[in-house]
Structure formats: structure tokens, C-alpha cells
Amino acid sequence: MSGVPLVYYLGLAVILFCLGAAGVLIRKNALVVFMSLELMFNSANLLFITFANYYKSLNGQILVIFVMTTAAAEVAVGLALMVAIFKSRHTIDLDQMNSLKG
């Protein structure tokens, strides 16, 4: 990151986060919502790496590893839940999942 200013990375992270937030708020498909959440996690990871490199610290890079591990576990559990819901309701539309009854 010697030639690229810090503001460019910050701008890219903000754009990615806003796209992810818009996807979570607008979309009704559960898969698209999970992909939008992952986009938001990756924008946060970009900020952690950017500031870790800017301040010459490894703390941000270590935190990114924890965020990536948590995101992988979230995807595994989320996809398993979606498969179970699809088997019982034959849809993964978020508007139709309004009760906890089986």
C-alpha cells in the first residue's frame, strides 16, 4: 500500500458496506441476504487490514482471521438452516418465514 492513499481503501470499504446493507434491506431471498452479509464482513476486513498496515500492527490482521472464521461458521450453519427450511416449506423467501411453528 505504498502508492495508494489510505482514503481510497476507506472509500472502497464504505461502498462495499453500503452495497451489502442495501442487499440485506432490499432483497427477500435468503441466499442473497447471506451474500450481502458476507460483503459487509469483507468490507470490515478490508478496513482492519488497511489500518493494520497503516499503523504497522498485526492486531488488525489477527482480528481478520477471527472474522473470517466466524463468517465461515455462519455460512455453514445458515446454509444448513436454509436446507432444512426448504425441505419443510419448499421456499426460502424471507417474507413467508414469519412463524417459529414447524
Please tell me about this protein's structure.
The protein is mainly alpha-helical and 102 residues long. The protein has a single domain, classed as Helix Hairpins. The protein is 75% helix and 0% strand. The chain has helices spanning 6-26, 30-54, 59-89. Helix 1 (6-26) runs antiparallel to helix 2 (30-54) and helix 2 packs antiparallel against helix 3 (59-89). The radius of gyration is 17 Å and the shape is elongated.
**Broad structural category:** mainly alpha
Overall tally of domains: 1
Q: Helix proportion of residues, in percent? A: over 70%
Query: What name does the CATH topology carry?
Result: Helix Hairpins
Point out poorly predicted stretches: none
Rounded radius of gyration (Å): 17 Å
List the SSEs and their pairings:
Elements: H1 6-26, H2 30-54, H3 59-89
Helix pairs in contact: 1-2, 2-3
Short structural description:
The chain is built from three helices and no strands. It is mainly α and 102 residues long.
Provide key terms for this protein.
elongated, mainly alpha, about 100 residues, about 75% helix, Helix Hairpins
